[in-house]
């Protein structure tokens, strides 16, 4: 599709939407139950009143505040309604053009909405994820046309580098540097992969992005393929995400139909096909080399590195791997310039970050904040604080690979470097709030059990070490541990962290190490009386 045709189609769709006096936007994500019933009920009431030409009902992606869902947004007034049921349809339609329906009204000036900065989530909850025309009308795919017709591949990479974008999947590796490495790699065939194997407990960032704006991820992948010279791409997504899979399949078909995928994309020299690969739910397949193995049809176990995927990845060819949120950051960088993203965040952590805010928190849901915002602001302003009058005890970031940050460090700005300094990581964006009623040994044992079960078993330190750590944590949980067990626990964590083959084993001890650092007394409180350990005579 050429620029002029794209603009004409987008303008035509905007005019059709503007023909309605009101729009009901209904969250159609997995987090909002009965949304299909709500949509059907609204359409039924509208039809009964003969208002089909004046009022539209549209399904949209996640609006973020999952704790109060299902959420319905009325436009153009921008009125939010919470905890909507199909039985509310009559009252909602009757309230149009009048004062908001107070029993369901959700103020739009809440800190949850006002303190966020939407970049990746800018269109989430605003467009129908199953309509390519909705995406085009919001400016979608213009960045692809701009990159393919006005920029060289090196210009695209330079723009990504200037933005300061770092990978949003875990370690925070500079995205532009990774792209440049793949672009320079030699080989007749290159691949790119979108890592959508989101497996952290309590995490649903990537799933929500795929369910809400699948075309944004595709657009980022197309731009990346042009930049590095890839001609085939794969989206590796969990089979447990049926709605995301459904919408990705539809998005790929629509992109192919409009020539954003296929031969001579948008009349350029780029040929690109993108396929889905469904993962079976193995956590280790979030590690890029294990993911590659799985895409190749083999058992998903990590490979030794080097060589790195940028040099020898999928089927031994140079391969670019980024996660869902990283690709979704790319179109705005191309369309609006790198300065917009670079102006947000900290010196070393630019832009925004999407988090799944869960646990003992009032406003659980999906949020996007500038890097550098403090944990205190996220928990108490956006999150609304701790329910039940309890005090905050810790914030766990990074999933099973992360650490537990105590309340005394709540004013820490959220960035790759600051979280690492506290013994945790950003990870893909899971953020679990823990209150004073929770014992940290119980939390850590849960995460270690997860890592133990998900270990691929290939290397001994991870296979045996996580099981031994879990055994020791069980002794502490049952108040049967000794001081010797505490020493063993610390030694084992050090061994597993420094000798495991891949990131799963290397980071599995992080929750234990961070709690030993900040909540050591909770381990000591569960130690049974034991004579002092005698040091061996030299």
Round the Cα radius of gyration to an integer and report it.
25 Å
Strand order of the biggest β-sheet: 2-1-3-4-5
Cα distance spanning the termini: 79 Å
Major sheet, described briefly? Answer: 5 strands, mixed
| Overall helicity | 40-55%
Assembly state (oligomeric): single chain
Global outline: globular
Number of helices: 22
* SS strand fraction: 5-15%
CATH superfamily of the largest domain: NADH-ubiquinone oxidoreductase 51kDa subunit
Average per-residue pLDDT, rounded, comes to 94
Number of domains: 4
CATH architecture call of the largest domain: 3-Layer(aba) Sandwich
- Text of the CATH class of the largest domain: Alpha Beta
Give the key terms:
single chain, 538 residues, alpha/beta, Glutaredoxin, Rossmann fold, Ubiquitin-like (UB roll), 4 domains, five-stranded mixed beta sheet, 14 strands, 4 iron, 4 sulfur cluster binding, 4Fe-4S, oxidoreductase, oxidoreductase activity, NADH dehydrogenase (ubiquinone) activity
Question: If you had to describe this structure to a student in words, what would you say it looks like?
Answer:
- The protein has 538 residues and is α/β, with parallel strands linked by helices.
- The chain folds into four domains: 19-107, 3-Layer(aba) Sandwich (Glutaredoxin), CATH 3.40.30.10; 139-342, NADH-ubiquinone oxidoreductase 51kDa subunit (Rossmann fold, 3-Layer(aba) Sandwich), CATH 3.40.50; 352-435, Ubiquitin-like (UB roll), CATH 3.10.20.600; 440-524, NADH-ubiquinone oxidoreductase 51kDa subunit, iron-sulphur binding domain (de novo design (two linked rop proteins)).
- It has 22 helices and 14 strands.
- It has helices at residues 3-18, 35-48, 89-94, 111-114, 132-137, 142-150, 153-163, 175-184, 205-212, 214-228, 242-257, 288-295, 324-336, 338-342, 375-382, 416-421, 440-454, 460-477, 483-499, 503-507, 510-518, 520-524, and strands at 22-27, 55-60, 72-75, 79-81, 105-106, 191-196, 232-238, 273-279, 319-323, 352-359, 365-370, 392-397, 403-406, 430-435.
- A five-stranded mixed β-sheet has the order 2-1-3-4-5, with helices on one face. Strands 11-10-14-12-13 form a five-stranded mixed β-sheet.
- The mean pLDDT is 94.
């Amino acid at each position: 599709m050429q620029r002029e045709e794209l603009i004409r189609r987008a303008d035509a769709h905007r005019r059709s939407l503007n023909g309605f006096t009101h729009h009901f936007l209904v969250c159609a994500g997995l987090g909002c139950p009965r949304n299909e019933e709500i949509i059907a009920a609204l359409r039924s009431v509208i039809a009964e009143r003969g208002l089909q030409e004046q009022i539209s009902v549209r399904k949209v992606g996640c609006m973020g505040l999952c704790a109060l869902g299902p959420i319905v947004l009325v436009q153009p007034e921008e009125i939010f309604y919470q905890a909507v049921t199909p039985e509310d349809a009559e009252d909602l339609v009757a309230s149009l053009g009048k004062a908001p329906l107070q029993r369901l009204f959700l103020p739009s000036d809440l800190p949850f909405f006002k303190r966020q900065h939407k970049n990746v989530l800018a269109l989430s909850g605003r467009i129908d994820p199953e309509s390519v025309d909705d995406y085009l009308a919001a400016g979608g795919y213009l960045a692809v046309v701009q990159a393919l017709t006005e920029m060289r591949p090196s210009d695209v990479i330079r723009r990504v580098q200037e933005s300061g974008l770092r990978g949003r999947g875990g370690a925070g590796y500079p995205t532009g540097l990774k792209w440049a490495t793949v672009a320079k790699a030699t080989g007749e065939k290159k691949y790119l992969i979108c890592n959508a194997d989101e497996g952290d407990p309590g995490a649903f960032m990537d799933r929500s992005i795929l369910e809400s704006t699948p075309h944004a991820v595709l657009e980022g992948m197309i731009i990346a393929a042009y930049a590095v010279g890839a001609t085939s791409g794969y989206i590796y997504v969990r089979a447990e995400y049926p709605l995301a899979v459904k919408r990705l399949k539809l998005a790929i078909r629509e992109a192919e139909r409009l020539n954003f995928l296929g031969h001579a994309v948008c009349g350029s020299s780029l040929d690109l096909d993108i396929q889905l690969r469904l993962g079976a739910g193995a956590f280790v397949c979030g590690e890029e080399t294990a993911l590659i193995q799985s895409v190749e049809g083999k058992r998903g176990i990590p490979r030794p590195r080097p060589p790195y995927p940028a040099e020898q990845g999928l089927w031994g060819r140079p391969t670019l791997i980024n996660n869902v949120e990283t690709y979704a950051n790319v179109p705005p960088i191309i369309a609006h310039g790198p300065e917009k993203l670079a102006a947000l965040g900290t010196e070393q952590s630019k832009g925004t970050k999407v988090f799944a805010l869960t646990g003992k928190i009032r406003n659980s849901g999906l949020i996007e904040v500038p890097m550098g915002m403090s944990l205190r602001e996220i928990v108490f302003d956006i999150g609304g604080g701790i329910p039940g009058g309890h005090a905050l005890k810790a914030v766990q970031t990074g999933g099973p690979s992360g650490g537990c940050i105590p309340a005394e460090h709540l004013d820490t700005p959220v960035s790759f470097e600051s979280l690492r300094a506290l013994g945790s990581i950003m990870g893909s964006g899971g953020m679990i709030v823990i209150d004073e009623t929770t014992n940290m040994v119980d939390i850590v044992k849960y995460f270690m059990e997860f890592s133990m079960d998900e270990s691929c078993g290939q290397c001994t330190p991870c296979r045996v070490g996580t099981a031994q750590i879990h055994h020791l944590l069980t002794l502490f949980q049952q108040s049967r541990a000794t001081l010797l067990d505490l020493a063993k626990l610390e030694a084992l964590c050090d061994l597993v962290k420094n000798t495991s083959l891949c990131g799963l084993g290397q980071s599995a001890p992080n929750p234990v190490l961070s709690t030993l650092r900040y909540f050591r007394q909770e381990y000591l409180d569960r130690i049974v009386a034991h004579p002092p350990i005698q040091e061996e005579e030299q």
